[in-house]
Amino acid sequence: MRFRGRRLRKSHVLAAACALAVAGALVPATQEAAQATTAKDRGPKPTIVLVHGAWADASSWNPVISRLQHDGYTVVAPPNPLRGVDYDAQTLKNYLATIKGPVVLAGHSYGGVVITNAAAGNPNVKALVYDDAYIPAQGETVFEINAAKPGSCVTADPSTFLNLVQYPGAPEGDYDAYLKVAPGGAYRGFADCFANGVPSAQAQLLAAGQRPFAVSAGSEPSGTPAWKTIPSWAVVGTADHVIPPAEQLAMANRAGAHITEVNAGHLSLITRPGVVTDVIRDAARATVRP
Question: Is the pTM here over 0.70, yes or no?
Fold first, then answer.
């Protein structure tokens, strides 16, 4: 009987151990299933679409792109034609139509005008991010915004800061405008006007590879603003010499944007990419259902 009792006790211990092992296996599986269900309920990560502005190209977004890709986001930075507000917005609209699922749309400088017009009426665009950018109301122009408050380095005599080049098929009186590299008159030069805060060698590369902006685009009125129906975020460079910070803040407040101020010039996407990336991440997280 003593032997049988020992065997019974041993069997109880073995049964309890098996039960614990099964429970231990089930807990991680249950947690994984719950996490998978939660992730599914929240939906996919949005695609991040980045739009460059005048006198730049998509490579200006590279420091931001690498950070977002590291986080697992799909990121695209299609070229902005810089031909005119309606033309550029329609080009971006057509591109956005090829993307399935939610989109966070970010624009730098004149790219802000383009995303404001291209996102209107697109239900897939869940957030707008403006980086040192124009955030126009209906009917406003780039030239009008530049002159709204003092301090812009691109409101001087055009002959002092622009090289004007004819382009094929241009309307009469229209030109491709390049920023001059050297200072002249009230113009501070490319490095101090457009690229202040950027290391000198890099500023020279940016000046050499700049893409021109059609002069007529600066006087073309903006259309119905997407920020009236889509949540927006804004990065404001407090040392911006192109779009006065006071004007950036006025536009961002008017749009009801979530505002982040950063000690940077017009190219914060290059000089402070961590800050710009954080703001885009915030906008992307806001598109995910809780």
Answer: yes
